Amino acid sequence: MNQAFLVRPNKLFTPGPVNIPNRVALASISACYHHRTKVFSDILTETLELMKPLFGTVRPVYPIHTTGRGAMEGVVNNILTPNDKAIAICNGSFGTMAATMMDRNGIPNVRCYESWTDTVNLEYLEKLIQDEKATAITVVHNDTSNGLVNPIWEIGKLARKYDLMLIVDFVSAAGCTPFKFDEWGVDAVVTASQKGLMSPAGMSFCVLSEKAENACATIESRDFYIDFKSIKKSIEKNGQTPGSTPVSLVLAVHEAVKIIHEEGVENVFARHHDLACRTRAALQAMGFKLFPETCNFRSDSLTVATPPEGVDIAKLTSYMQSEYHLQIGKGLGDYANQTIRIAHMGYCYIEDMIQCIAALESAMATLGWNQTVGKGLQAFLAYSDK
Ligand SMILES: Cc1ncc(COP(=O)(O)O)c(C=O)c1O
């Protein structure tokens, strides 16, 4: 056991999992409810109700006992069939993941925007929909690999125009950024517990449109474990889930969404936006380039950036970890050694980011990468959207 972890807290600036508020950690062990009791059903029901504003919906929110990947795969298997043809928007690791899930599950799909620096061009997307006679689109709202946000509000208009099933991965932005499920015309959206919901990993949540629910009702899901027919039936019957519910996780998420409502949902979104803008300003002042360099919509959950020439990302991240007990994310995939990913997601306030930026500057100076300590922090503090 690493003794340092027992003495000095490890602070996460990784884009999931994130730091867990003490209230959430304590709530998760506060009681030992059986999952087939009214007291527990009431907690789960309240959790799902409190989550609706995070999705921008009046529709039911369904709990799924799995992480985000499991929930995405479940959605795909419950509402698409081998007779469908999906357009998979792949401008990030998690966009590609959805395409791979469809490949593995025998759902025909056409990949597009395969570069991690691609911006979705709506005219091209429309042409692709027509040419391929598509029936569905899969897309990530906030791709955690590159910090790109895809314009679901525009893609939704196309989905409605062509009557496509629009499936959105919202794993790394729920509780961070507004989402308007009902207004944007989305058919299925998925999020998970370990990011903006400030809880341990292991639970996911999903909203389905009426059209998606109708599809679930008629399709024999290839998935036994995640079968929305039985999840819906069980939730409607007594506010419970099929199988043994991870009670401690539900207690954690329940507390987390209560905290979000105490701060105010709009205030939480505004905090994320402010921290994202400040962090981008700080990194640019320190000589980083935002990644991708050109991009229409950047994430409010995390900042992805390319360091100045000569910086060794592995050394930088491991120094931050060993000396300051702060963990930031390395890049993913082909960009593993080219980008860093810093999350300002969930339980993260201005004082946390001040600490992170200051530590980053100190680490770079100590490691000899010519950083004028203070430049980043100054830009962080000076940022104003006024
Ligand atoms: C955008 C996105 N989608 C899906 C996933 C997969 O979720 P999980 O790790 O909970 O299975 C992640 C995890 O990082 C993610 O960031």
Write a structural description:
It is globular, with a radius of gyration of 21 Å. The longest helix is centred in the C-terminal third of the chain and has 21 residues, at 265-285. It has helices at 3-7, 22-28, 38-55, 68-79, 93-104, 122-132, 152-161, 181-184, 210-218, 228-238, 247-263, 265-285, 313-324, 350-366, 375-382, and strands spanning 11-13, 61-64, 86-89, 109-112, 136-140, 142-143, 148-149, 165-169, 188-192, 204-208, 289-290, 302-306, 326-330, 340-343. By secondary structure, it is an alpha/beta fold. It has a seven-stranded mixed β-sheet, with helices on both faces. Strands 1-13-14-12-11 form a five-stranded mixed β-sheet, with helices on one face. It has a two-stranded antiparallel sheet with strand order 6-7. It is 45% helix and 14% strand. It contains 15 helices and 14 strands. The protein has two domains: 7-17 and 264-382, Aspartate Aminotransferase, domain 1 (Alpha-Beta Complex); 22-261, Aspartate Aminotransferase, domain 2, CATH 3.40.640. β8 (165-169), α8 and β9 (188-192) form a beta-alpha-beta unit. The protein starts with a helix and ends with a helix. α2 runs antiparallel to α11 (247-263), α3 crosses α11 and α12 (265-285) runs antiparallel to α15. Bound molecules: pyridoxal-5'-phosphate. Residues 16, 67-69, 94, 140, 143-144, 169, 171-172, 192, 201 line the site of pyridoxal-5'-phosphate.
